[in-house]
Amino acid sequence: MTLLHVEGLTKRFGGLVANREISFSVAPGELVGVIGPNGAGKSTLFDLITGFQRPDAGAVRLDGADITRERPDEISRRGVARTFQKLRPFAGMTVLENVMVGAFQKTADVRAARETAQRALDAVGLGDRAGAHARGLSTGQRKRLELARALATRPRLLLLDEVTGGVDQATIPGLVRLVRELHAGGLALVVIEHNMRVIMEISQRIVALQLGQVIADASPADIVRDRRVIDAYLGESWRT
Amino acid sequence: MPRARMVLVLAALTLALVVPAVVTLPYPRDVLIRIFLFAALAQAWNILAGYCGQISLGHAIFFGTGAYTSGLFVARDVGSPWLAMLVGAGIAVILSQLIGAPVFRLRGHYFAIATIAVGEIVHILAVNWEFIGAARGLYIPVKRPDSFVNFQFHQSKAVYYYIVLGLLVLGLGVTRLIERSRLGYYFRAVREEQDAAASLGVRVARTKRVAFAVSAALTAACGTFYAQYVLFIDPESVFPLSLSILICLIAVLGGVGTLWGPLVGAAVLIPLGEITRIYLGGTGKALDLVIYGALIMVISVVQPAGLVGVVRRLREAR
C-alpha cells in the first residue's frame, strides 16, 4: 500500500533539468529521507509534490488519486503539509495566530482553532511564545513555528525541507526527537536533510538525488555503502 | 474587548449621536459628514488593502458606481435610492470580481497597477457615456417633501449625519466581524505570505476576491450616500484617480490594517483639507495635497502603522 506515489516527475527550467524522471513512493506511516548535494533538485521535488510548481512530465498520486495538476491549497486540504527551506512565517502576526491559520483548515471556530494551535505549539516546544510576534523569533524557533503551523492542519503526510539547517547545535536533538515522535504517532514524513547523522538516524528509507535524478533508493545501511551515493555526496569518510 | 475600551467606544458613539444637537450650523455639520463619509470609504478600502494586503488605487470605480446607480434611479424614476444602494453595491461586487479574477492569480503590484488602469478606463467611459449624462454629469431631481424613502432631507443636515454615521458604524462592524473570524486570519495570512497561506490550505485567490467584494460593496454604498447628499454628480467628482488616492492616503495616515485607523486618518485629513482651503483659498489650490504627501512620507518613514501605530507605541512605552 502506498500513500504517496511519485512517477516519472520531470521539471525543466529553461535548459536546466531540475528533476528528471523521479519516481519513488511513501507508505502510510513511513519516514523517508531525501539527500543530495545542493542543486540536486530536492526542494523542486517538494514544490512539484505540493503543487507550487507544475511538472513538465510525470504524475503525483496520493492514495491513488492524481493530484499532479492541483493547487497547493487543494493538496494541503488532502492532508499533505509542508515546510519551506526559506522560512515563511506570517511576520506581522503572533506565533499563536500563525498556527491558527493552519488549524482553521479543519474548523471555522476561532476558539477550537486556538486550542488546536496551542497544542501544536506545545508539541514543538513553543508554547510559551504563543503571544510573541513571529518576526521576533530566532531561526530555530521559526523552524518550530513552521512545523507547528503545518501540524495544526492535521496532515497525513508531512514534507519537511531541512529540519536542522541553520539551527544551532543545541537545538538539533530536540527537533530530531520531535520528528521521531511525530513518526511514532503514525504520521508519514518525507524529510530533506543535510545533516547525515540525523537523516541516518531517523529514516527508514533514503532517496538520494544527484543532478535531478534518483541515484539510490534504499535503507540507510545500504545507502552508506552505495558507490554512487558515496561519490556524489557522502565522500570516502563514510565508508568506515 | 477589554471593559475600558468597550466603555470608550460606547461613549464615543453616544457623543457622535448627540453632536447634531450641539453643532447646529450647516458648515461644521458638513465637515463632520465628510469626515464620516471618508472614514467609511477608507475603512472599506482597509478591508481589502490593510487586512488582505491587496492595494487598490481604483476604488473610485465603486464609489462612482454607487453614486451613478442611485443618481439614475432617482433621475429616471426607477425606485428609491435605498434600493439603488443595494443594486449599486451588487454592481460593484460584480465589477470587483471582473477586475479581480484575472489579476488575483498574479502577485506583487500587478493588482495595484490593474486597478489604476481600470479606474482610468471607467472614468473615460463615464465622461463619454451619454446615457449617464457624459461629462455634463447628472442632476438628481429634488424630491419633496423630505422623506426617508426619497433619501433627501432639505430642512436639516442632521439626517444625513445619522445616515453616514450608520455607514461608518456598518464599516467598523463588518471589519470587526472579519477581524474576529477565520476569514480575518486568512486575509492577514494572504497579506503576509501568500505561499505559506496556500500551503496551509487557504484558497488564496478566493480569499482576495471575498475581500474585494466586501470592500467594493461598502464603497458603493458610500457613493450612493454622496449622490443623495450632494444631488449632483459628474465623472470628475466621483470617478477621478485623485479620489482613489485620497481614500488610500486616509487609511495609510490613520493606520492600515487597524480597526480605528481610517477614522483617525479622516478626522485629521478632512479638516486639514478644509483649513488649507479656507486660509489659502484659490491661491493654495493643491497645498492640502502637498501636506498630505509630506504626511505620508513622514508616516511611512517614522511609523508605517500610521497614527494608530504612534498611539500604540506611546502606550507601550509608558
Description of the molecule:
The complex is a heterodimer of chains A (240) and B (318). Chain A is of the alpha/beta class. In chain A, 35% of the residues lie in helices and 25% in strands. Chain A has nine helices and ten strands. In chain A, the strands form two sheets. In chain A, strands 6-7-8-3-9-10 form a six-stranded mixed beta sheet, sandwiched between helices. In chain A, helix 6 (172-184) links the parallel strand 7 (157-161) and strand 8. Chain B is an all-alpha fold. Helix content of chain B is 74%, strand content 1%. Chain B has 14 helices and two strands, in the order αααααβααααβααααα. Chain B has helices spanning 3-22, 26-51, 60-75, 81-103, 110-128, 158-179, 182-192, 194-199, 204-230, 235-238, 241-254, 261-280, 287-302, 306-317, and strands spanning 138-139, 232-233. Chain B has a two-stranded antiparallel ribbon with strand order 1-2. In chain B, helix 2 packs across helix 11, helix 3 (60-75) runs antiparallel to helix 4 (81-103) and helix 4 runs antiparallel to helix 9.
Distance between the termini of chain A: 35 Å
- How far is the N terminus from the C terminus of chain B? 21 Å
Query: Which stretches of chain B of 5+ consecutive residues score pLDDT under 50?
Result: none
Kindly state the mean pLDDT of chain B as a whole number?
A: 91
The shape of chain B is globular
Low-confidence stretches of chain A: none
Helix tally of chain A equals 9
Going across the biggest sheet of chain B, name each strand in turn. 1-2
What's the pLDDT, averaged over the residues of chain A? 92
Strand fraction of chain B:
under 5%
Overall structural class of chain B, as computed from helix and strand content, comes to: mainly alpha
Q: What kind of assembly state do the chains in view correspond to?
A: heterodimer
Q: SS-based structural class of chain A?
A: alpha/beta
Proportion of helical residues of chain A: 25-40%
Q: Which two chains have the most extensive interface, and how many residues on each?
A: A-B, 30 and 21 residues
Order of strands across the widest beta sheet of chain A?
6-7-8-3-9-10
